[in-house]
């Protein structure tokens, strides 16, 4: 038995859970080998996958052509397989709220990837994505709506969804779509140039001058003077530690907890590092075809889900210290799962398949920096009862 045979069997079982009818059994086989290549090489460069593949092909170029043909094959819908598996992973979610992060990232100044992911224990797990052929990170509303509709179909029933987004997505039409069409809540950071109506008077966000350590929460207001959107709430704060001004728009009354909720969005930045330089190294793929790049994102999303499920089980079973040298958890669940699979391959252990993401609180929250953790506990705010004078 080859070192990767047990991993191949586990991935084959994992992917067959989605009840997807593959048009050709070789499509599923190639997908398994691509994921094995990513895990083994810690890269998405197709040239590096061949050394992990068992097949009749002897030449490295043959493996590369095989993977390129698979990625360019429009009959293969890897997103459908991923949607079925992520929907299954979230189906047992029992907590009251589930937080989604919406963001974009640009690769090679050629493609923009719109990314919606579940915020989960210090990172995000991909739910839906779309590749757009443009160099700007700003995308049109209908593109965002299309990705959000995909994500909505995968959400568990009876769970309130809260979307977190940065300033580039602060748009009244998007807020209306989230609230009225999807039935979601939102926490979106807005620019200082944004206008809002307070007590019948229109004013800019920048006109609210707070001293360090102060916060102010508005009653229901309208935002966007050109096309106003009503009945939203603003949260203002001047963070003393970072010396930054923060303004969050929410569909629900705001308080200090609003900022803690919005900070969950930062976890997508760490996931983009995993996607690029700190993990899969997406830009090393050198793909310049939109369809192939979208398919590759699907393979990465499946790999991330598989590894996160492994990492969750590693912590739950008390085996974290076998793959993480830190006293407190210092690695993401993705990296824990990655290291566990490599350890299992080394020792030829059986690799089990897991289906569900636990919705219970993180039993071992990551503490990468003790100083940053201690500083975060020092944040204090004085809440003002009225808007400060300009």
TrEMBL record:
InterPro entries: RNaseH-like_sf (IPR012337), Transposase_11 (IPR002559). Residues 117-303 form the Transposase IS4-like domain. SUPFAM superfamilies: Ribonuclease H-like. GO terms for biological process: DNA transposition. GO terms for molecular function: DNA binding; transposase activity. Signal peptide: none annotated. This is Transposase. The lineage of its organism: Bacteria, Bacillati, Cyanobacteriota, Cyanophyceae, Oculatellales.
């Amino acid at each position: 038995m080859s070192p990767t045979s047990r991993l191949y069997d586990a991935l084959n079982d994992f992917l067959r859970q989605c009840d997807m009818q593959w048009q050709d059994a070789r499509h599923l086989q190639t997908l398994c080998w691509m994921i094995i290549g990513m895990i083994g090489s810690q890269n998405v460069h197709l040239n590096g996958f061949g050394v992990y593949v068992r097949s009749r092909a002897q030449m490295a170029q043959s493996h590369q052509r095989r993977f390129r043909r698979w990625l360019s094959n429009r009959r293969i819908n890897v997103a459908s397989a991923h949607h079925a598996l992520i929907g299954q992973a979230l189906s047992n979610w029992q907590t009251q709220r589930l937080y989604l992060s919406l963001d974009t990232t640009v690769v090679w100044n050629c493609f923009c990837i719109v990314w919606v992911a579940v915020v989960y224990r210090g990172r995000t797990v991909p739910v839906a994505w779309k590749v757009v052929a443009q160099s700007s990170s700003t995308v049109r509303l209908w593109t965002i709506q299309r990705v959000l509709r995909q994500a909505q179909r995968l959400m568990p029933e009876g769970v309130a969804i809260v979307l977190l987004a940065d300033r580039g997505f602060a748009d009244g039409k998007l807020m209306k779509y989230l609230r009225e069409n999807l039935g979601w809540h939102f926490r979106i950071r807005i620019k200082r140039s944004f206008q809002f109506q307070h007590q019948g008077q229109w004013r800019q966000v920048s006109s609210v001058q707070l001293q360090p350590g102060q916060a102010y929460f508005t009653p229901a207001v309208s935002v966007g003077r050109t096309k106003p959107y009503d009945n939203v709430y603003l949260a203002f704060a001047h963070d003393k530690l970072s010396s930054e001004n923060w303004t969050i728009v929410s569909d629900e009354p705001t308080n200090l907890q609003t900022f803690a909720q919005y900070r969950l969005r930062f976890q997508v930045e760490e996931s983009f590092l995993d996607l690029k330089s700190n993990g899969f190294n997406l830009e090393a793929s050198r793909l310049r075809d939109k369809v192939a790049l979208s398919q590759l994102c699907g393979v990465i999303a499946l790999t991330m889900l598989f590894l996160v499920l492994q990492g969750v089980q590693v912590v739950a079973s008390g085996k974290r210290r076998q793959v993480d040298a830190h006293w407190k958890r210092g690695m993401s669940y993705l990296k824990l799962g990655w290291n566990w699979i490599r350890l299992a391959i080394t020792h030829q252990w059986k690799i089990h398949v897991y289906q569900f993401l636990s919705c219970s609180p993180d039993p071992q929250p990551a503490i990468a920096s003790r100083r940053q953790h201690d500083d975060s506990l020092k944040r204090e705010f004085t809440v003002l009862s009225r808007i400060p004078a300009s």
